[in-house]
Amino acid sequence: MNLYLQDSKLTNLGKIMEIHGPKLLGTSYKDPIASFNLFREYTVRHPEVYWSIILKELSVTFHEPPKCILDTTDKSRPGGTWLPGSVLNIAECCLLPSIHPRKEDDSCAIVWRDEGDDDDSDVNRITLKQLREQVILVANALDRTFTKGDAIAIDMPMTVNAVIIYLAIILAGCVVVSIADSFAAKEIATRLRVSKAKAIFTQDFIVRGGRKFPLYSRVVEASPHKVIVLPVSGRNVGVQLREQDISWKDFLAYDNQHQRPNHFTPAYLPVDSMINILFSSGTTGEPKAIPWTQLSPIRSTAEGWAHINVGVGDVYCWPTNLGWVMGPILLFSCFLTGATLALYHGSPLGRGFGKFVQDAGVTVLGTVPSLVKTWKNTDCIKGLDWTKIKSFASTGETSNVDDDLWLSSKSYYKPIIECCGGTELASSYIQASPFQPQAFGAFSTASMTTGLVILDEHGVPYPDDKACVGEVGLFPLYLGATDRLLNADHNDVYFKGMPTFKGMRLRRHGDILKRTVGGYIVVQGRADDTMNLGGIKTSSVEIERVCDRADESILETAAVSVAPPDGGPELLVIFVVLKKGFNQQPEKLKTIFSKAIQTNLNPLFKVSNVKIIPEFPRTASNKLLRRVLRDQIQHELSVRSRM
């Protein structure tokens, strides 16, 4: 038997395809590789069948079981009603031992290391039982201080304590408000106001690259009702607290004397109860407050289980933060599959992080492309052994093919699973799949149960086998996707103005997708990042991909188009960040870029201007703010036109 085929049958998804494929697909089923597309298409048509199978594979235990998997009778809910009648506590599911997947009290739940610790010392470990006891301790403290349903924020790095607090808030029946530790006071205040948070957990300082940065003082500027403050090191906080605030040590003190400190009765709630409020990037006004329900972790975990093959025995690491969607996804993807969560308390940019990946025995490593670029350019992981890694994963930005090849080479050219989704979907809607041939920087399939079409400029879907470029439209039946927003009209944001397809109102996501002749999918940017050059529509990402490779001096580029103040066709402007040690003239780069774009994209495209800057403006989640660059150029043109 082909070794690749044999390995495919041993994966999470391969095993259930071997068991259920012949029954569901009949004689059409051959094996996990040959029949992957057929099986995935079946899950789109019959999502209730797929989810009935997957729920048995994850560590999900219902206090009251669902009446059915999917109810579509309520026409006011285009996404359907999933697992109606079911009651559970998803945090409890994370903390209890299970037979399948195999989780035991002495299983390693989290492995971690603090930045600055001796890199040759052993990594720290906590078992499932120890984690459960710590979560219960915090849940008891929460229960005596707050009321079920209260929103409680977390603004701190993704440490072991942050994970404990996150699970405890949900176990106690409260709602986590996710705030990234990089936010300014104004952004923190907006999120506290929108979520109506009653309190916030934070640290006195953040340590990055050997330097201490104040965090508590920044949080206090946002005027929260109450702050629970953890020390970045030691037992005592290193700042003076406001009268209404309390240290972590004092917050827990009561429960250390509690008669039953290791006992807590979870808050069992309907499956569509809110557990976490996350936020969009907020690059165009107030960020959308996106509620996660108990369905959301089920969806996000299932994607990692099926496409990245995360499970018992894996050590899963992804530098992220609970303020961004990848933080909760990582957490649940470990604890609901029996994998070990790997956390590095510090910056992922240097050798210390790379050494931790080696010493922790990480088997699945998640990245963002800019992080890979830094590792490659600084050569900080040279000499380290990353060969235990069985697969990489990447999300957040468009990947660079050369950087991906370099990363893959660090573990005998293991695959890089590209993932693209959204906070409001609790998952990726397109993926790379190990069951299909892969191309670096591209996606090979929609995720399991996900139906989608690519729309032309009139909102008409292209045929599924046609190479094309257009805005994506998602089928609305999508377990885990939002059905509400806290500060915007959900229907207006995701459904209003979208075309119908086969009787379904399509769901808006906003990505521009390119489907190649070979069937691969490339994200061309957001619908609002498209440009019209001489009557031809193209995307910023497509132009940037060509310009990034045009000259050895280029670290990265950003393409924007602006309308001239006196009218006329849009002008193409390329912003450039040069590699360290390189000098280059804008006019020379303009010639180089124009030639590359005309050769690789369209002979009619012309670069109007090139601007070299030290770095690009980005959101706290590292998304490029082309809007800021576009506004800068528009302002310069307006000033010139008045001179």
Automatic annotation (TrEMBL):
Residue stretches making up the AMP-dependent synthetase/ligase domain: 108-472
Domain called AMP-binding enzyme C-terminal: residue spans: 554-623
Statement: the UniProt record of this protein carries the keyword Transmembrane helix: yes
Keyword Protease: no
UniProt cross-references to Gene3D superfamilies, sorted A to Z: 3.30.300.30, N-terminal domain of ligase-like
Keywords annotated in UniProt: Membrane, Transmembrane, Transmembrane helix
Pfam annotation, one family: AMP-binding
Taxonomic superkingdom: Eukaryota
Segments passing through the bilayer: 163-185, 322-344
Stated name of the protein: Probable acyl-activating enzyme 18, peroxisomal isoform X3
Gene that this sequence comes from: LOC107945518
